[in-house]
Amino acid sequence: MKNEIENRPLLQGKNLNDLYMSIFQSRENLYSQADLRIQVKRENIEEVAMKIINAIHKEIIS
Questions:
Q1: What's 41's DSSP letter?
Q2: 28-50 residue pLDDT tens
């Protein structure tokens, strides 16, 4: 997100860490109800997508 600030006017001049924490806290209850949880660290979009696909596949065949 840091690289996209100039393309996202609502993020300009904001502290991204504070904004992220605010959004996360407002959604935390919903996130806790998820059927699947994917651990993400420094993976790129394609790697995260594969993690999601693999988790769904495992859920289906179980």
A1: S
A2: 999 999 999 999 999 999 999 99
